[in-house]
Amino acid sequence: MDFVVNRQDLRQCRFVPDAAGEHAHAGPGCAVLRVASFAFTANNVTYGAVGELIGYWKFFPAEEGWGRIPVWGVAVVEDPGDSGLVAGERIYGYFPMSRQLTVEPTRVSARGFTDGAAHRRELPPVYNQYTRLAAEPGHDPRDEDAMMLLRPLFATAFLIDDFLAENGFFGADAVVLASASSKTAFSLAFLLAKNRRDACRVVGLTSPANVAFVTGLGCYDRVVAYPDVATLPDQPVVLVDMAGNQNVTRAVHEHFGANVKYSCQVGLTHWEQVGDVAGLPGAQPTFFFAPSQIEKRNKDWGPDGFQSRLAASWREFLAGTKGWLHVVHGCGAAAVERAYLDTLEGRVKPDEGLILSLQEP
Ligand SMILES: NC(=O)c1ccc[n+]([C@@H]2O[C@H](COP(=O)([O-])OP(=O)(O)OC[C@H]3O[C@@H](n4cnc5c(N)ncnc54)[C@H](OP(=O)(O)O)[C@@H]3O)[C@@H](O)[C@H]2O)c1
């Protein structure tokens, strides 16, 4: 069973039978994975919103006009075939919102493998790599929900923190984060507050309804609702924009003018308010694509050097999430559809993390 959405209208969604059948067997060079559970956040909505532009529809092909939104999840090896994987072992990685996925494991090692399926070969490698959880140092199955929900978002924040620091914050002394209640934004705020106190202040912009939650996180120096951008003191800033809302981007650029030293476009949580932001005062918005920065740091630090720095930082962040992250589980087609539509419409509370499954309860 596959969950598919209309590529032209993300509000239209439905379930279709899996083309491979419910209990597929692994052909030569293949393995069948049962998708046990997956996280769903605004990040996944963005995969759909920019599916055409960035190619997210290409990972898990669907019928013409429809798309399968990718999610980060955990699967169990159902049929390892001749792949070298072990039946029953748990795998973390990029999956469709489906009951199962057939992969073509290549570069199989004790730590993981790459899906070498022909249609994925040209896509960014970070999405094609799967982790064998039993072999992961320090892996605790009790942390799997938080891992699915936060690890890819935290990794992006880690890369932005590193990118900004490497560039001396472009001469700014404050970082303004739009959509400050998003998990990606407050992962970054956590890193900035912990490591860069001397270099910059951290300012969060959010919806009026989310001001209290963002303030309570304790990692922003100041939290301001979107309508109050003009109350911020004029100083050199970097804008890190997870909202993608043209009105917010415009308000920040017009308020700070030439003091916008760098404008980093990261996300589109406000996916329906996206618009043309060319020609604004200050530095022109520049898209941040995490996989490109990963490739850079893999070259600079070596893949092991990159992974060990990221892992150490992640463990510290994870420990701090236990106080506020409320995991909400949903199982079955109706729950998945409801969670999808709630996330699309911005109805999920920022302290909630949705973990979903299409398996039989
Ligand atoms: N470029 C990259 O490589 C990269 C990598 C990772 C993530 N990202 C992006 O970062 C963004 C954040 O993702 P996330 O998963 O961390 O988000 P999340 O935690 O699910 O964000 C939830 C927040 O987003 C805002 N929001 C969500 N849906 C909305 C809607 N329909 N209308 C208005 N506001 C809405 C609200 O925040 P406010 O009230 O605070 O606005 C809400 O509290 C996504 O766009 C994601 O794609 C980009």
Question: How would you briefly describe this protein structure?
Answer:
The protein is of the alpha/beta class. Helix content is 30%, strand content 27%.
Considering the chains and any ligands shown, give keywords for the structure.
361 residues; alpha/beta; nine-stranded mixed sheet; six-stranded parallel sheet; 18 strands; 27% strand; globular; binds NADP nicotinamide-adenine-dinucleotide phosphate
Task: Give structural notes.
The protein is of the alpha/beta class and 361 residues long. The strands form three sheets. Strands 3, 5, 6, 7, 8, 9, 10, 17 and 18 form a nine-stranded mixed beta sheet that branches. The protein has a six-stranded parallel beta sheet with strand order 13-12-11-14-15-16, sandwiched between helices. Helix 4 links the parallel strand 11 and strand 12. The longest helix has 32 residues. It is globular, with a radius of gyration of 20 Å. The site of NADP nicotinamide-adenine-dinucleotide phosphate has 28 residues, from helix 1, helix 3 and helix 4.
Please outline the helices and strands.
Blueprint: E1 2-6, E2 9-16, E3 31-40, H1 42-49, H2 51-54, E4 66-67, E5 70-79, E6 90-96, E7 100-103, E8 105-106, E9 112-115, E10 129-132, H3 144-166, E11 174-178, H4 183-195, E12 201-206, H5 211-217, E13 222-225, E14 237-241, H6 246-256, E15 260-265, E16 286-287, H7 290-321, E17 326-331, H8 333-344, E18 352-357
Helix pairs in contact: 3-4, 3-7
The protein binds NADP nicotinamide-adenine-dinucleotide phosphate.
NADP nicotinamide-adenine-dinucleotide phosphate is lined by residues 41-43, 46, 153, 156, 179-184, 206-207, 210, 242-243, 266-270, 288-290, 345-346, 350.
